Amino acid sequence: MFFLNSLLFLWTWLLSPSKCVLEDFAVTQPPLVPVDARQCTILVLQRDFAFSFGSAEVVQLEPPTSCGPIGSWAAITLNFTVSVNGTQFDRLGIFTFQNVEIWRTSTFEPTRGDGVAWTYIKDVSQYTPLFSEPGVFILQLDNLIQTGLDGIYSTTLHATYYASSPNHPPANKADLIIPISTLANDTGNDASVPPALSRAITLPNNTVQIYAELFASGNGQEEDWYFNVANEFFPEIPDGITFGQGSFREVRLLIDNQVAGVAFPYPVIFTGGFVPSMWRPIAAHGAIELPTYFLDVTPFVPILVDGNPHNFTIDVVSAESNHTINQNWFVSGLLQVVLDSSPLPTTGNITRYEADPFAKASVSGTDRGIGDIDVNIEATRFLHVESDIVSGSGQVTHVVWIQDLQYSNFQTYRNNATVQTLQQRSSGNITSSHNGVPAVADVFSYPFDANFTYLFPDLQNWTSTIDHSYNRSLLPNPLRLATITMERQTTSGFFQLVPGGTNFGNGTNNNTFEYLDSAGNTYRRLVNAAFNNITLDEESGNLAVN
Ligand SMILES: *[C@@H]1O[C@H](CO)[C@@H](O)[C@H](O)[C@H]1NC(C)=O
Ligand SMILES: *[C@@H]1O[C@H](CO)[C@@H](O)[C@H](O)[C@H]1NC(C)=O
Ligand SMILES: *[C@@H]1O[C@H](CO)[C@@H](O)[C@H](O)[C@H]1NC(C)=O
Ligand SMILES: *[C@@H]1O[C@H](CO)[C@@H](O)[C@H](O)[C@H]1NC(C)=O
Ligand SMILES: *[C@@H]1O[C@H](CO)[C@@H](O)[C@H](O)[C@H]1NC(C)=O
Ligand SMILES: *[C@@H]1O[C@H](CO)[C@@H](O)[C@H](O)[C@H]1NC(C)=O
Ligand SMILES: *[C@@H]1O[C@H](CO)[C@@H](O)[C@H](O)[C@H]1NC(C)=O
Ligand SMILES: *[C@@H]1O[C@H](CO)[C@@H](O)[C@H](O)[C@H]1NC(C)=O
Ligand SMILES: *[C@@H]1O[C@H](CO)[C@@H](O)[C@H](O)[C@H]1NC(C)=O
Ligand SMILES: *[C@@H]1O[C@H](CO)[C@@H](O)[C@H](O)[C@H]1NC(C)=O
Ligand SMILES: *[C@@H]1O[C@H](CO)[C@@H](O)[C@H](O)[C@H]1NC(C)=O
Ligand SMILES: *[C@@H]1O[C@H](CO)[C@@H](O)[C@H](O)[C@H]1NC(C)=O
């Protein structure tokens, strides 16, 4: 959809220069932490990411000993505080601890003059087993300093451990967390695909439950994957507008080359996307904490407890005839593993396995010539696996794992492809049950409408309007709370590229956010921005701080 990759849209000028540092933020619920608990805060790292390409920050992190027994904490959070002044692209940040990716973020694009700053608190309580051991903590934030790019990301990362007490019990934790990652010790542990990421993993033979979490985001020719055009129609798109391989993307987890589960990814828009001035000071949903995807791998326990290594693969595929994608996606994953109290091996059988290698998809459209097409891609994915699992201590569990997902993407191009519209719908119902009790549940709907219009054939200025939502009812695994998140964001803006000069832009960004969870926490925020200023901000619910 873009003349150049959206990462190349830079902010170098402000419509109405602010008098002080612009405080950027993402709309999300406050962290669920016991504010009255004893806290131990540790400085994990402090680093100015200037020319940092290939030079991640690698530090040793030890668990604190003065907030109760190690591993008994009620919660753990990370506080990432960043400031930047100058001109710079949005950059991806990969937080890795003990070779496990635990948070994927991206940066706000700065402006020159007063600069921008933000703080984001990330709940990492679900990774307590990793934080209970000393280990290597890595932040990869590949930044470039070169002609025209001088923004240095000055970062500080603190970890806070909250002591547990009768009022605030220890966070639930798995017995083991196993990475599906590159295992690199000097950089972020995500892999660039294609080709696929594969890792041989040997599980303890008394494993009784396994829950996967997948990280996946498009980059380069795949950053705006939802605007990529089906190959059948791609010859009608003028050079430099977008890429081929269609818009459908499915992230797959394979075990010994068989599909174990999939994710239809949420379309994250980074702060250089479409019209960078729309994301000041409010990021698109998911840009600062990228959504992750949860699968129940428990039904595969019967084949994984034989003491042998098994091949876990993460890939990203399209709906094109050979399923290939462009370069690239960054992926990684982890397994939360629950062991039986008995050391005796688990046994069992997979009693039903119904999963096609690829989603069912169809491409259709209308071709009226160069730059004048309609393209429609529709896809469905159904997976159903059942198993009987017998633990060493004699517990018999019947596991049912079902994924039922739908996707459609309708794109129109007019006026030599300078007028573009997109309507994407992605939804699904993912459930697993263990003897009838829900273990993983993810009912989601990610509607995404975007219009993009170049105002002049030189492709130097354009307007865009976006209306997208993140509606998700999620139980990631039985160790965590069930949550409901409903976020709708509507934005519009204008952008003018001035080669060799100062770019110009404006934008509005309206948000309706609602959160509730199975512990009774609620939070609602209405917040609107126009041209860098907050025009409405209302908070309510029992998590509201104001
Ligand atoms: C996060 O850390 C910054 C310093 O890096 C500090 O100023 C700020 O108060 C912290 N925020 C919270 C909520 O702990
Ligand atoms: C930002 O950098 C510019 C120079 O590029 C400098 O003039 C300005 O004072 C800086 N602003 C802050 C808030 O440090
Ligand atoms: C990092 O990995 C490399 C290559 O696998 C290995 O040679 C090196 O010893 C490792 N370093 C540390 C500190 O573990
Ligand atoms: C199960 O694993 C344990 C620990 O690795 C090993 O000692 C034992 O022999 C294994 N049992 C079987 C039946 O594979
Ligand atoms: C269509 O767009 C392409 C690339 O943007 C441009 O090179 C070409 O001249 C345009 N054609 C017409 C008829 O405007
Ligand atoms: C692991 O799976 C991948 C993807 O299916 C395959 O390409 C690779 O050859 C497999 N590796 C092994 C060791 O079986
Ligand atoms: C898949 O198809 C695309 C588009 O036709 C082509 O560029 C690519 O080389 C093919 N890849 C493989 C592995 O066949
Ligand atoms: C698994 O299947 C085998 C062969 O049919 C059977 O002997 C065994 O009892 C089954 N185990 C379970 C836990 O269902
Ligand atoms: C999701 O699927 C489950 C089991 O197939 C069904 O019971 C439930 O009603 C579905 N939920 C929604 C919201 O469609
Ligand atoms: C868009 O750019 C063209 C030429 O590049 C200019 O004539 C036109 O006025 C610009 N539109 C706006 C709204 O600035
Ligand atoms: C995009 O344009 C179409 C046609 O003008 C309009 O119906 C739709 O509401 C627009 N979508 C957005 C997100 O502005
Ligand atoms: C944004 O700037 C453009 C170009 O100057 C202007 O046409 C438009 O009216 C501005 N948008 C708003 C909402 O003021």
From TrEMBL:
Presence of keyword Signal: yes
Record-linked Pfam families: PNGase_A_C, PNGaseA
Stretches of the chain forming a coiled coil according to its record: none
Domain Peptide N-acetyl-beta-D-glucosaminyl asparaginase amidase A N-terminal: 37-355
Secretion signal, residue range per the UniProt entry: 1-22
UniProt keyword Aminoacyl-tRNA synthetase present: no
Keyword terms of this UniProt record: Signal
Entry protein name: Peptide N-acetyl-beta-D-glucosaminyl asparaginase amidase A N-terminal domain-containing protein
The organism of origin for this protein: Marasmiellus scandens
Organism lineage string: Eukaryota, Fungi, Dikarya, Basidiomycota, Agaricomycotina
